């Protein structure tokens, strides 16, 4: 009998040159470069260019890439108008997902070759932050702030959101967050994007599917849940009892644990430091409360279950975004704004990989465990003859 691979854990389904994760040693590598090096030396534009190409760009390639990102910094009038017609209560993840689908009908690229998809990737990386920033202003009854061509990708987003140019430290902190979230191999959303691309559907359909997968609380939605948890707990003193009660009820502590990392998630390490810096700068308590959640969860899991658990990327990103003044329900959309660099790189790899074996349509198998009435199937009973099952 074949064994089932529930959740496809550790099943190798494709080759990739984009990203490597070493879950045992806590390493995350984009195209051969350690994430810890990239957050020190690179910025989001260069990192996105790296992900979409095979190596770090030369000055000429980077400048062309950055110029194209700036040139694509606008959304069609129809998309902006439709944003204004949405109910103000709409969930921002639903908004970004539907607007990515809508952008497909305004696509200026022709055909489905590599160049056209590269253009679509640049367009999505540029336009998704605009949709989110505009949506936040529109739902709050404010005028939208058109993008600024003189600001970097991170600074421009904060500017469109708040109407104020961020100082260089704040812009850099947000830039680092974008680098950290840009790519993470075959997680649920990236796999969703690749699966859709494997049918030869277009880039917008693949990214829209990825956004849907990201929205769930076991994936990108966790950072929103973490901030809700921090606000509910409210103080360092209340952490211990809160965490113990949750674990005793068999509930999960959001922001802790990971399907791949069995040690410290390197992104959490960087974000922990950013959260600490922002707490010091703003005088807010969120870093200390988060640290206490980390410590108590680790201790309790060890004591009660005898197992280790570590923070994931969402534990400290929640407080980091909160202290950057970003509304908490934008945490997951911002994850998408960054991860679109990785998704689009994967869509291009899925469609144009030269590696052997070449990717093919994903088609796993399910084991049927439903009703069985013999080889000729169950007898179809007319509706007026059916009895209510006991
Ligand atoms: N809080 C409490 N218990 C947790 C936990 C958490 N955050 N994460 C894992 N566990 C428990 C599981 O319930 C499981 O217990 P069980 O065997 O009794 O069912 C045990 O630890 C082993 O979990 P494991 O199989 O190693 O994790 P996973 O691969 O199933 O889950 C996550 C990975 C991310 C889905 C899981 O850790 C989780 O739900 N975390 C919270 C949500 C989150 O932060 N998501 C963002 C991920 S980047």
Main sheet: strand order: 1-2-3
Sheet of most strands: 3 strands, antiparallel
N-end to C-end Cα span: 34 Å
The CATH class designation of the largest domain is Mainly Alpha
In round numbers, the mean pLDDT is: 95
The number of helical runs is 16
Order of helices and strands: EEEHHHHHHHHHHHHHHHH
Keywords:
390 residues, binds coenzyme A, Citrate Synthase, domain 1, Cytochrome p450-Terp, domain 2, mainly alpha, three-stranded antiparallel β-sheet, 55% helix, 16 helices
Kindly summarize this structure in a few lines.
With 390 residues, the protein is an all-alpha fold. Helices cover 55% and strands 3% of the residues. β2 (27-30) and β3 (33-34) form a beta hairpin.
Written description of the protein model:
- The chain is mainly α and 390 residues long.
- Helices cover 55% and strands 3% of the residues.
- It contains 16 helices and three strands.
- The chain has helices at residues 35-41, 44-52, 59-71, 77-84, 92-104, 114-139, 153-162, 168-181, 188-198, 203-214, 222-233, 239-248, 266-282, 286-305, 313-323, 331-352; strands spanning 19-22, 27-30, 33-34.
- Helix 6 (114-139) packs parallel to helix 7 (153-162).
- It is globular, with a radius of gyration of 23 Å.
- The chain binds coenzyme A.
- Coenzyme A binds at residues 218, 222, 252-259, 312-314.
- Coenzyme A binds next to helix 15.
